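hey all, quick one before standup. I had two proteins in the batch that finished overnight and I want to keep them in one place so we stop losing track of which output belongs to which input. First protein below, input sequence then structure tokens straight from the run.
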Amino acid sequence: MRPVHIVKHRRKVHVHAAGHGYDSGVTKATSTPVTQERPRGGRLPRNARRAQLFDAALEVFVANGYHAAAMDDIAERAGVSKPVLYQHFPGKLELYLALLDSSCDTVIAAVRDALASTELNKERVQATIDVFYSYVADSQAAFRLVFESDLTSEPAVRERVDRVTTETAQAVAEVIHDDTGLPTVASELLAVSLVGMAQVGARYWLENATALNHEEAVGLVSGLAWRGIRGFPRTEDSDA
């Protein structure tokens, strides 16, 4: 890839999931304890009620794990009756899968936004790495459902967890292929390696290396990734 000019201001890609934003200033996330139930209210629009149930389920699943979580606990935390909860989700697994789908979609969409946020590949690398660090730093710890699920023996769960790597890597691979002209299989291998580095590094940083702040951690890892990927020159017919 041809050298690019460094710009002082890069577009920040914000990540949001299950009604909560991810603040890059957060340096440590911990499991959220289940607190007292929310006050019971009147009827809510279906989408608003579903978001409320997602919030409650996220707290209970992260605090207790799938197996120890109970629908009673989730209903109580949401401030609704069990029949209301079952109107939206027929069982605990269906609720867990729906919440997992939402969390996975958040990561995938954020990576695509990061790749589309600039035509400068150095900034693309940094924005993409930042997605994973922003995601794991969320105080709601939604990332634990995606990367640390205690139900990966369930095929439907494993499929969704794998989808995060598959679809984010596919988005990165398309950029690599278009810019370098590398064969599809080579582009996909490089992309999976970059995504894996971002995922594993972000989780390690959260648990062990938070003496480094968010920006420092992203700068180190994206610098490493850029030094590697820039060794593959852009094709002559590339637009940027």
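OK second protein, same deal, sequence then tokens:
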Amino acid sequence: MKKLTYLMVVIAILGLIVSGCIPVVPPAEQDELGTLPNKARVQPTAARVKLESHIFIDRFQVSGDRGPAFSDDFSVYKLFRGGVKWSETPVSYYVDLTGAPGDALSAITASTDEWESYTSADLFEYVADTSIIFNEPEDLEVFYDENTVSWASFENLGLPEDAVAVNVVWFWVMVSPGGVTGRVLDLAQFHIINNSDLAWAVGAVEGDQFDVNNVNTHEFGHSLFLDDLYMPPASELTMLGYTAIEETKKQDLGLGDILGLQALYGE
């Protein structure tokens, strides 16, 4: 009796298929389970990679805002995006000295030398002059072929008038199928831009001048992907997010700067 009932059910289903009431799913339209057509499911798409940028803006601080004195043995540092770093070093960079004071190149290379003196990693390599010039806000959104150091008018670039320098960094990030930005995969590029609307000097700074070595040692810290610090005890560290006229203390790394560097690139 059970066999007869089963046979009757099968015959009924075949009849519905023949009549078109139950569609047959062709093999080409079936998914890996062989049960539902692809269009009946939300199919995941592959994760992708995209290029993103971030601008570190470092502002000047008037003398009355400096607060109490601290030492440079403050051991705190901050890593950008949880600790991303260059997958390969040394990182080559180019310099445009238009608008820079005399002997600025030696001050810039002294900045990179200071970072390299606290790690066995070969971090930076100066290559040559560059023809990349930043003239308008749109230039900050362009991905170029070189890492650069230059001077430009922040008024023309639409940057804050109290900014001494900026560092535009580019990096590759993973994007999920749902469009959510995930982890940083690798670093891609940096552009240190010093504000040519301000007064600059190398060596003996006076009056309203900013020291090239002082400011750019901080900026190369961003190029290594160390983040700014703003707490008062970090006032004597290179990665403090403010600078001041006639300031030179950022030329020499403090303890927190060294620990942050070595956390990324080793001792």
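Flagging for whoever picks this up: Strands lie at 48-60, 91-95, 124-129, 148-152, 163-175, 181-195, 199-201, 209-211, 242-243. The chain has five helices and nine strands.
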